């Protein structure tokens, strides 16, 4: 079993190496075939691993292969170790499963791109790093995966390197993520100071020590600091306030990448991290409050921005930020099961929506502006049906997946933190509104597609429809994994060894009722407003609309408080330090070397006799020195 | 009455220094070769003198090898000299400064 | 210093050959004409052979005359004639400051090394002839017994020396014997 554990990351890595080295020689069929098969192989291995988890007595599978690094004389010893328990086992299935579907989709979507094999190399690399991240048995290895997915994300956002905006977006994502990574690193240092180890599991692992809190005690202040730093890292990766600005820009990458990395998997790494350390977070009420409020505010801000977007992918991007915010609300309210459940269902329906949007964009030859869509329902029927399912699911209309998972979050917030519940409920309403807006603008109403494109629509092939169909089915049924209202709680039972099941709440009926009403009303309003949309009526840009469209001007804020001072400082240092200071020093350095070199160069005349002469003179000097030193020593 | 060892050593040093002077001042490669032979002879002399002093045959043995190597060196060196002369029409070592950096 | 050591028969022999060696060595270094310098070197080699004799190295003295003064010097003279260097077709004049530096450093080197040698035990005498017996004797028999004794380290090196000479012969033939192809002429 522990050998199979290694196969999960290894197979995609092999795929990445093959595609990254000789991929361009293989042709599209072979290149995508290798990539798809490697991820399917990883998925099968993951199924086997999860089967092993459920059948093992301790509910985990682990493997300590080789020592990686250790510092003699200190307790620091870090092995290459993987550990899978129900929490990350579930994530592993989502990553490899949804990953495999998106690989299949990409095989058709990326057809004809000149970086075809490079694309699949990056995508496989991403799956590899993501598997390392969630399976890691210690924090340094987790950090390797953490940085690795950041790298893969950077490479894929900037995949179309010739596009200036894509490279800018890639850099932005990378740099903004760095801020969170620093927080995560500091959290690792502090954890080492407190626990004298960086291993998560095992007899002396951090999580084991936290469980046995009777023998081990962390001061609340320290716990708060570590928890907040961990959350800082999570906020960077999962695009929370104030670090969410990179995710909307990340839509510059190919659409399947947005579906896989920036909706279904990588951005949920932050949620995973917080859930992994839920014992630590529970020690600190302050940290829980911060997490809940950050999540709630992010959710609301992003939802407001989502309402005002015209780009179909930007709508989905802000929607992702908003849903991630909801997940953090769940974490902050102690409902870690609900957060992980929403991670799973969100992975299904958001991947579905992104891939559906990709199919639409593909059909329209790259058009992303919803003002130039409309009336597509009858033209690309299968895509329309599946996007409709996704929309209903995310809008929170029962009995689809989104309803059940979101309801859990809202219930937890209602019970533990009423103001945040208000934020989350408002977010839910806005989510339903803007998702129906997106649906109506794209598929209903009169067609605003230009004549030429309308006559040459790309009809999606099987490789595009099949993943969409599977994700659609999952979006419908996944909610029933954890629907306490109808007596189903597989998912909380599954997670029970890691995260205790939530106690039953008597507010369940009330919250569910509110959710249903809010979702239906918001959806109805949206449908009514955008039923007969024309560019003329909707395009008037009020100041509020513009404010929302720019995501509350966060980019401008950062430009003013971070980028401008930095640019000014750089300009100053360029002038004073670089040009006058450093360059002068450099000139001094090189001219003195030049001078010495020019004078010594005459020595090397190329005449052998001179060299022998030099040798003889040196011999004289050496012998004289030895002679004099010998005389002194003799006396 | 026999001769002190030091006499041989000093003589050997004088011959060796003459060789150094020849190698460093001469411009004709043949003369440089000859100066090298002079130095080799000086070394051989001191080897034999030391061997005699110590009652050890090693000094004479080494001298035999030095002679053999010198013979090989002269034959190859003069071959090179002829080859250079053929291509360059000039064997002045001050002109042959291909080692110049 | 025991200068009176030079007044014995052996001492006079040493004095004669030493002066001849130094004088002819100086001529090798300073003579302008390569041919004359080569002939001075022959004298020098003969003198050194005489010194070998004074050290009881009879076999080596013979080899010195046959191989050095004979074979090698013939090779030198042959090349000098082949390249037509007998006359001053080369500018063999000395090189100004370089020459002064060269000679002074040569004198310095010789003086210094002699000082090192004399610094130790200035009056060490060579053993008398009567005491030189057995393997250290310079006779053909003595040399052969040492050189070809498989229990001593010289035999193996000696065999390899023959290989070295073979390589040198082939190398010399390749270097000097190869005619330049007309097509390889530089344009």
Q: How would you describe the overall organization of this protein?
A:
The complex is a heterotrimer of chains A (635), B (101) and C (187). With 635 residues, chain A is mostly helical. Chain A has three domains: 1-137, no CATH class; 161-552, no CATH class; 593-635. Chain A has helices at residues 2-55, 86-109, 116-135, 139-157, 164-195, 206-211, 220-237, 246-249, 255-264, 269-276, 278-283, 285-307, 312-332, 336-363, 381-395, 401-416, 418-443, 451-455, 462-477, 490-495, 508-530, 535-538, 543-549, 554-601, 608-634; strands at residues 61-70, 77-84, 482-483, 488-489. In chain A, a hairpin with a 4-residue loop joins strand 3 (482-483) and strand 4 (488-489). Chain A is globular. With 101 residues, chain B is mostly helical. Chain B has one domain: Helix Hairpins, CATH 1.10.287. Helices cover 77% and strands 0% of the residues of chain B. In chain B, helix 1 (5-25) packs antiparallel against helix 2 and helix 2 (29-54) packs antiparallel against helix 3 (58-88). Chain C is mainly α. Chain C has one domain (3-133): NADH-ubiquinone/plastoquinone oxidoreductase chain 6, subunit NuoJ (Four Helix Bundle (Hemerythrin (Met), subunit A), Up-down Bundle). Helices cover 66% and strands 0% of the residues of chain C. Chain C has helices spanning 9-30, 34-54, 58-82, 97-119, 140-147, 154-177. The N and C termini of chain C lie far apart (67 Å). The mean pLDDT of chain C is 79. The chains are: A mainly alpha (635), B mainly alpha (101), C mainly alpha (187). The interface between B and C is large, with 71 and 97 residues.
């Amino acid at each position: 079993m522990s050998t199979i554990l290694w196969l999960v990351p290894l197979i995609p890595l092999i795929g990445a190496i093959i595609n990254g080295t000789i991929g361009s020689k293989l042709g599209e069929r072979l290149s995508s075939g290798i990539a798809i098969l490697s991820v399917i192989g990883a998925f099968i291995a993951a199924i086997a691993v999860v089967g092993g988890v459920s059948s093992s007595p301790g509910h985990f599978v682990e493997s300590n292969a080789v020592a990686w690094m250790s510092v003699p004389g200190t307790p620091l010893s870090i092995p290459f170790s993987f550990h899978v328990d129900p929490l990350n086992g579930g994530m592993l299935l989502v990553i490899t499963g949804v990953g495999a579907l998106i690989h299949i989709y990409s095989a058709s979507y990326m057809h004809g791109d000149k970086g075809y094999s490079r694309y699949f190399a990056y995508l496989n690399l991403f799956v590899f790093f993501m598997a390392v991240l969630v399976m890691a048995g210690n924090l340094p290895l987790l950090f390797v995966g953490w940085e690795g997915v950041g790298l893969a994300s950077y490479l894929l956002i900037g995949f179309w390197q010739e596009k200036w905006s894509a490279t800018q977006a890639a850099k932005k994502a990378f740099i903004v993520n760095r801020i969170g990574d620093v927080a995560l690193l500091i959290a690792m240092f502090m954890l080492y100071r407190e626990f004298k180890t960086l291993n998560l599991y095992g007899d002396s692992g951090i999580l084991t020590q936290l469980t046995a809190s009777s023998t081990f005690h962390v001061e609340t202040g320290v716990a708060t600091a570590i928890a907040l730093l961990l959350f800082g890292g999570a906020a960077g990766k999962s695009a929370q306030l104030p670090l969410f600005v990179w995710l909307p820009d990340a839509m510059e990458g190919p659409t399947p990448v947005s579906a896989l990395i920036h909706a279904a998997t990588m951005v949920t790494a932050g949620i995973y991290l917080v859930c992994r350390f839920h014992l630590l977070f529970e020690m600190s009420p302050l940290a829980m409050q911060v997490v809940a409020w950050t999540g709630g505010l992010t959710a609301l801000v992003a939802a407001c921005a989502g309402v005002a977007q015209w780009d179909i992918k930007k709508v989905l991007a802000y929607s992702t930020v908003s849903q991630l915010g909801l997940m953090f609300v769940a974490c902050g309210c102690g409902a870690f099961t609900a957060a992980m459940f929403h991670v799973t269902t969100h992975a299904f329906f958001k991947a579905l929506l992104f891939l559906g949007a990709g199919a639409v964009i593909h059909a329209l030859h790259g058009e992303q502006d919803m003002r130039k869509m409309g009336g597509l329902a009858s033209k690309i029927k299968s895509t329309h049906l599946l996007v409709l399912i996704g929309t209903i699911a995310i809008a929170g209309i029962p009995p689809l997946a989104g309803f059940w998972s979101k309801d859990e979050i809202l219930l937890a917030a209602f019970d533990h933190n009423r103001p945040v519940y208000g934020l989350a409920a408002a977010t839910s309403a806005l989510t339903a509104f803007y998702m129906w807006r997106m649906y109506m603008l794209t598929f209903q109403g009169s067609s605003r597609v230009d004549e030429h494109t309308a006559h040459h629509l790309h009809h999606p092939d099987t490789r595009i429809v099949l993943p969409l169909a599977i994700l659609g089915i999952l979006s419908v049924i996944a909610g029933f994994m954890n629907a306490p209202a109808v007596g189903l709680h597989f998912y909380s039972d599954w997670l029970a060894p890691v995260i205790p099941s939530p106690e039953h709440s008597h507010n369940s009926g009330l919250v569910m009722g509110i959710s249903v009403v809010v979702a239906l009303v918001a959806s109805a309003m949206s449908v009514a407003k955008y039923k007969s949309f024309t560019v003329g009526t909707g395009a008037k840009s009020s100041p509020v609309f513009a404010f929302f469209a720019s995501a509350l001007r966060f980019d401008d804020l950062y430009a003013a408080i971070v980028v401008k001072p930095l640019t000014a400082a750089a300009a100053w240092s360029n002038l004073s330090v670089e040009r006058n200071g450093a360059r002068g020093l450099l000139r001094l350095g090189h001219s003195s070397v030049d001078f010495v070199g020019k004078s010594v160069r005459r020595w090397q005349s190329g005449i052998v006799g001179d060299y022998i002469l030099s040798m003889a003179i040196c011999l004289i000097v050496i012998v004289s020195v030895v002679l004099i030193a010998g005389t002194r020593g003799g006396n | 009455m026999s001769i002190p060892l030091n006499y041989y050593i000093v003589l050997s040093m004088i011959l060796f220094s003459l060789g150094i002077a020849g190698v460093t001042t001469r411009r004709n490669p043949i003369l440089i070769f000859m100066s090298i032979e002079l130095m080799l002879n000086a070394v051989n002399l001191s080897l034999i003198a030391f061997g005699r002093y110590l009652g050890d045959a090693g000094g004479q043995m080494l001298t035999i090898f030095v002679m053999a190597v010198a013979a090989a060196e002269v034959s190859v060196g003069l071959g090179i000299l002829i080859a250079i002369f053929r291509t360059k029409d000039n064997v002045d070592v001050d002109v042959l400064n291909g080692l110049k950096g | 210093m025991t200068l009176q050591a030079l007044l014995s028969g052996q001492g006079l022999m040493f004095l004669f050959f030493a002066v001849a060696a130094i004088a002819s060595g100086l001529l090798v270094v300073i003579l302008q004409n390569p041919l004359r310098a080569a002939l001075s070197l022959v004298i020098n080699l003969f003198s050194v052979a005489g010194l070998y004799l004074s050290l009881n190295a009879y076999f080596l003295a013979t080899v010195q005359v046959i191989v050095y003064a004979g074979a090698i010097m013939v090779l030198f003279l042959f090349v000098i004639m082949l390249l037509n260097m007998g006359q001053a077709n080369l500018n063999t004049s000395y090189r100004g400051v370089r020459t002064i530096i060269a000679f002074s450093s040569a004198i310095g080197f010789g003086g210094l090394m002699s000082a090192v040698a004399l610094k130790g035990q200035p009056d060490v005498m060579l053993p008398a002839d009567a005491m030189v017996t057995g393997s250290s004797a310079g006779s053909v028999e003595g040399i052969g017994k040492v050189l070809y004794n498989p229990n001593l380290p010289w035999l193996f090196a000696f065999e390899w020396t023959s290989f070295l000479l073979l390589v040198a012969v082939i190398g010399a033939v390749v270097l000097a014997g190869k005619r330049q192809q007309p097509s390889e002429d530089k344009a």
